[in-house]
Design goal:
The protein is of the alpha/beta class. It has 21 helices and 22 strands. It is globular, with a radius of gyration of 31 Å. About 6% of the residues have low confidence.
Length: 660
């Protein structure tokens, strides 16, 4: 919103060259004669725009773009058994259906059928046309309320008259989601109530004028649900559950408005760290005393983050913090290292938000069928496809000895304490501030029920009661258990599981499973020839030397940069992201490596690599589970033979230097 007055230069105020020469000469605010005069002798009346296009032309383009997005998805989703629905919000019922006229079709209905007939005849939509085989007038309908005389009326979505409308939609939901139902496009006058919960709305077109009282969140809320297939199963796939919003306003304006509405209604500020997030987090100090972070501690954490250039002066998260989160090496004040996992969880929660992308960034990721047939892929896949099984050789006495040592050296666990803090409130016009006037922790005298510690630990750590009993007795730390049973069980569970996992890895061996291997047709969904939707600069990057024309990455700049590096490396003849269905079994869950790479050197030597990309190549910097799974992956590929080299890297250049 900009405020102008006589002599205001619109180009200077807006910074946009399209307003060059538009300087305000006068403003007439008299009712009925409202207009602006410019020094270039042009006049602009209220509600008009210079160089603007006809309003109905814009509405037609919105309708056409909605149908196009709808048909694009149907080309892919009907093969997956998913019914696609589109929803139009309109400002007047008569614009869709005029019940007082002989020709009941309103201007929007006519526009829809004209655009639909034009688009469905395009060759790329032939499969969709053959599949549904319905006329344009059969694929759309409107749901509007009626008054007592049966007349269709405009409503705002919250009256008794609306109930029958929404009930009609709700009771027919299963029919709407069926391929047998011809209806795929729905027109409604109001933002539907919360009761209308249809999961398969993939496009929402807002033909309502900007002055509507319905919010962006209310409108798009109709489409923010996991879709279901023809069997009623929920499809939890980010590449499928993409909602297109076709709005008249610019993408930036719509995204900003939606983000602000969500923040205003939920009270959550996306991507902002504040003091409250880091108050009352439990930790133990250097003397082993259990404490909780105070408001002063929380301020200290934020100041530390500012000094590390993790956040700006308003607490907004910067890319430096996001990159360190991905690499697993967030720098914290030393005294709070023991609360690292809980602090990181708070940061990750703060950075979650609705992902909004402009439609021009969307790409349909297409498979290159010919690549699957060339020698490079066949050779590489034959090196990778073999399945393995692992066996663990663990020495029980060594396990007990290491667990006893780790538990005996853990920080002392005192009795449960209650935090008491006195603060002074300062209420001013600028807001409410407070100053801590002292804090203390007091031990409680409350008697607690002593749980079955041996049974709990045996279950948590997957060890026998006898082994757990020996560990506890030899550690001589049972007084800590009496002081705080729950805390003791939590800490000893973590310690024993870490020791057990590391012992497993040290003694683990992988062997080939005779006759068992992965099928690339199954892993790459080869028979269905399915397309996938993704977004440039967010989840996809165009490449030349892979199985698809784009690489889909996991919101990681490390992966994006690595894909581009591989694509530009002359020795790399083929590379691809290993499908999620490719699983290597480990003692702590399945492991899915990142990349497969085929290289031919100048002397025609062929090399086969499996690579895990991380922001750090130091196993110490990686989280415990990540590090263990990667070590298991290394042993799995060693079992396949010396031809396949596996390692962790950030760049392919550093990987090559290490293995050349």
């Amino acid at each position: 919103m900009k405020t102008v007055k006589p002599n205001s230069n619109l180009e200077t105020i807006t910074g946009r060259s399209i307003y060059e020469g538009y300087v305000i000469a006068g403003i007439n605010a008299m009712e009925g004669f409202e207009e602006i005069e410019f020094t270039n002798t042009e006049f602009l009346s209220l509600g008009k725009a210079i160089g603007d296009i006809d309003e109905l032309t814009k509405k037609r383009e919105q309708i056409k773009r909605t149908i196009e997005a709808h048909l694009d998805k149907e080309r892919v989703y009907i093969k997956k058994g998913i019914k696609v629905l589109s929803l139009f919000f309109i400002d007047e019922v008569a614009k869709y259906r005029d019940y007082d006229s002989e020709d009941t079709k309103g201007v929007y209905a006519k526009m829809f059928e004209e655009c639909y007939n034009e688009l469905i005849e395009q060759p790329k939509y032939k499969e969709v046309k053959d599949f549904f085989n319905k006329e344009a007038n059969e694929v759309h309908d409107g749901y509007f309320s009626k008054d007592k005389k049966g007349k269709i009326k405009n409503t705002n979505g919250d009256t008794v008259d609306d109930y029958s409308t929404y009930n009609t939609i709700m009771k027919d939901k299963e029919w709407l989601l069926s391929f047998d139902c011809p209806l795929r496009f729905i027109f409604s006058h109001s933002a539907l109530k919360e009761g209308w919960d249809n999961p398969n709305v993939f496009q929402i077109c807002t033909l309502i004028e900007n002055r509507t009282t319905f919010t962006c969140r209310q409108k798009i809320g109709r489409g923010l649900r996991l879709c279901v297939d023809q069997t009623g199963e929920r499809i939890d796939d980010k590449g499928i559950n993409i909602l297109h919003v076709i709005a008249e306003e610019s993408f930036a304006d719509f995204a900003d408005k939606l983000q602000k509405e969500i923040e205003d209604e939920t009270g959550v500020k996306f991507g902002i760290l504040d003091i409250d997030m880091f108050v009352n987090i439990s930790y133990t100090d250097e003397n082993g005393v259990e404490k909780q972070t105070s408001a002063t501690d929380a301020r200290g954490i934020l100041e530390h983050f500012r000094a590390k250039n993790y956040i700006d002066t308003k607490g907004k998260i910067k890319d430096t913090l996001k990159n360190d989160l991905l690499a697993g090496k967030v720098d914290l004040p030393k005294k709070f290292e023991r609360a690292k996992d809980r602090i990181i969880k708070q940061i990750e929660n703060a950075d979650k938000k609705v992902v909004i992308m402009p439609s021009y960034k969307q790409v349909s990721v297409k498979r290159k069928d010919d690549v699957f047939e060339n020698d490079a892929f066949i050779e590489l896949w034959n090196k990778l496809k073999q399945k393995t099984i692992y066996r663990i050789n663990m020495n029980k006495d060594t396990l007990i000895e290491k667990c006893v040592k780790a538990i005996s050296e853990m920080d002392q666990i005192g009795k449960t304490k209650i935090s008491k803090e006195t603060v002074k409130l300062n209420i001013q016009k600028s807001g409410v501030d407070y100053t801590s006037q002292g804090a203390r922790f007091e031990e409680t005298d409350t008697q607690v029920l002593i749980p079955d510690i041996v049974g709990n630990l045996a279950k948590n750590c997957k060890l026998t009661r006898d082994t757990i009993g020996q560990i506890l007795l030899k550690s001589e730390r049972l007084q800590d258990f009496v002081n705080n049973p729950q805390r003791f069980i939590e800490q000893t569970t973590e310690i024993i599981n870490n020791v057990r996992a590391n012992e497993c890895i040290d003694g683990i061996t992988y062997t080939k499973l005779p006759g068992k291997s992965y099928s690339f047709t199954e892993l790459f969904d080869y028979e269905n020839n399915s397309e996938v939707f993704a977004f440039l600069d967010k989840t996809a990057v165009a490449v030349e030397h892979s199985l698809y024309d784009h690489i889909i990455y996991d919101n990681s700049q490390v992966e994006r940069n690595f894909a581009l590096e591989l694509d530009n490396y002359t020795e790399v003849k083929l590379f691809f992201k290993i499908p999620d269905k490719f699983k290597i079994p480990t003692p702590i869950g399945n492991y899915n490596p990142d990349w497969a790479v085929y290289v031919e050197t100048d002397n025609e030597k062929k090399l086969y690599f499996v690579i895990e990309t991380k922001g750090s190549t130091n196993y110490i910097d990686l989280r415990d589970k990540e590090s263990i799974k990667i070590k298991c992956g290394k042993k799995h590929f060693e079992a396949l033979g010396a031809d396949v080299k596996f390692d962790v890297t950030k760049t392919f250049r550093s990987f090559k230097e290490k293995h050349s």
